[in-house]
Structure formats: C-alpha cells, structure tokens
Amino acid sequence: MKYNLFAAGLILFITLSSCDNLVNPTSNIKYSHGVVFESYQNGKSDIYIMDLDGSNLFNLTNKLPRNYFNPDATVNNSNIVFESHWHSNPNSSLPYDKSKIYSINKDDKKINCLSISDHDLSPLISPDGLKIAFGSITNRSCDIYIMDSNGSNKQRLTYSGASGNLEFSPDGLKLLYVGVTAESSYIYVMNTDGSDKLRLRLTYTGLSSSPKFSPDGSKIIYESYDPNQKSREIYSMSIDGSNVRNLTDNQKKNFYPAYSPDGTKIVFVTERDKFLEIFIMKADGNNCTKLTGNSLHYSPKFSSDGHYIFFYSYDNYSQMFIYRMNIDGSNKMKLHAGQNFDLF
How far apart are CA 253 and CA 226, in angstroms? Predict the structure, then answer.
C-alpha cells in the first residue's frame, strides 16, 4: 500500500511505556494463505487474520491494550507487521503523538515490539521477509528507515521528508516512495541501503501516489491528480521514469491500481456517477471492464494465485466489510467487517 505515513490515529490513550505489555494470543490454527486486516469492533481497533474464504477468523491483538492498524504481510514469510498509535494527552486536538511498530508470527502467534522510538509507523515487509521499511517522524518531518525483521540494524534512508506510499521491488533490492514538495509530489526509487536515489521524471504536473512495481520489476504504475483537469488518471512508466503512458485517460478520478500476479492485468477503482466502482483492464490499458455495481469500493488486490480479487466496501453505507470475488466480478462473498488488509 501501501499507506500514507501521515494517516490519522483513531483513539487517544494516556498510558506511556517503551512498548505495550505484550501478551501472546493463543491459537493452534496454522495459516498457509490468508487475509490480515484491521477491524474496529466494540470500541477498539485490532488486527485480525482469516483464511481466504473468511474461515478461521482470529483476533491477533485482542489481549493488547491499545489500538492497532495498517498490517502488512508477504506470501513467503510467517511474520506480520503492524502499528499502534495513541496520544499522550487525552485533551489534545491532535489525533496522536506516539506510534510504534510490532510484529507477530502468524504460526506461533508470538508478538514483538520492534520500535525504540515513539514515532515509528507504516511498516512494510520486504518480499523475502528479512527487512522492514517504515516511516519515522523527527522534528515534524517523516523520513524513511529500514531495519532487520527483528528490529535491529535501523538505518535512515531519506533526509528530506517523505509522504510514504512505500513499495519494495519484487526482488527486494529497491524501494519506491513518494516525496512531497510545496507544489507537487514526485515518485522516487532508491536502493534499499538508500543509495542511487532517482526522482523519476514525469511528464505532467500534479500529485502522484500509490506507485506499484510490476511483478517482473520492469514497470511502475501509479495514480496522478491533474488540478487543471480535476481528474486522477492511472499511468505506467519504466523504472527509470521513461515511457510514461496514461492507461485510463477518461478524465475521471481513478484510484488504487494493482497488478495481477502475472502482470497482464490491472485492477483499479473509478469514481463514476458518484460511486467508486472496481474495473479491470489489460496492463496496456485496453479492454477495460466493470466488475462491481454502484457502491463505494476501495483497495482491490489480486490473490497470489490470481484467481480472486479482494477489496473492502461500505455495507449499506455504514460499515466497512472485506469482500472476495472472482476476477470476472462473479461470486462476490462478504468475509468480515474490516479494512486496510493485506494478503499472504
């Protein structure tokens, strides 16, 4: 996602400590492939896990005292990372001023706090599971760091402030991120040690976000807002910023592009007729097909085998639920209340 590093917190807490009083949850369920997500239930946001069909639902953080958000997982690794944020002053008008990163093993359910700082957020696991990239706020500037999966060997990668939208390349050797200036935002790529930073040269002005590598690592898709046309289009480009191509080119607002595992298709959301609808197209922008009816849908993603598309959507415009459907839009299945999910 994955996610904007300045996402707002939801709940305020007074308790201060180096980390929560960790209590490992108990479960004998083993998950080979599944969904990890956040869900707000009974006044608390927790991280849940379930199988791809919604079975074997389990709350991973119900024994922890705070609220937990933004989980991330990979197909070939047993660890899940997520964040907690809270405010040290319950009377503050700000959503939060403290945040930490945690990991949990989806097999033995052991929880670890990975943060030393009180300002770490939006973790992202590398494809091999050995590294975690994340944001950390210092002097009101959010920069990108990387660390080993056990929280050791933290290294700062940027020094100019970044809005996040972190994305590892498929081989785990590069990172995409979005850097913001006063007038615009730019997509950058760099090695995971912070070297060879390249601001990709884009052929438009406006705001860029949600960059994603193609499965073979040769291209990048992203969304860009044009303030003159008041539209948000989905583009592709080579990893050096060349060969920019508008894939949607419909003067609408298009969001959340994601490649299929084989790189031949892209699923995305389009705002049309006051609704957010899911469409699928070929990777070159051709053969665009609508998959969902009139509602508000978000963040579609392909399963690792390419057979399903997962997304979350408002149910009767009141509560978010995670859904699964076939890639032709058939057999929609409501799985569980939740959002901000990842697949493994």
Answer: 10
Separation in Å, CA 84 to CA 57, 103, 121, 143 = 21, 11, 8, 18
The closest of 47, 78, 85, 18 to 336, measured between CA atoms, is 47
191-214: per-residue pLDDT in tens? 999 999 999 865 455 566 889 999
Q: Determine the pLDDT at residue 343.
A: 95
Residue 9 has a pLDDT of 30
How far is residue 198's CA from residue 139's CA, in Å, rounded to a whole number? 25
Q: How are beta strands 185-191 and 198-199 bridged, if at all?
A: antiparallel
The set of residues, in sequence order, having a beta carbon less than 8 Å from that of 131 and lying 6+ positions away, is 125, 146, 147, 148, 149, 172, 192
pLDDT tens across 58-111, in order?
A: 999 998 888 999 999 998 789 999 999 887 887 777 777 889 999 999 988 999
Total-model pTM: 0.89
User: Minimal CA–CA distance to 340: which of 308, 303, 301?
Assistant: 301
Q: CA 208, CA 164: separation in Å to the nearest integer?
A: 11
CB 69 within 8 A of CB 80: no
Helix (H) or strand (E) holding 266: strand 265-272
Q: Give the dihedral sign, CA 92/95/97/99.
A: positive
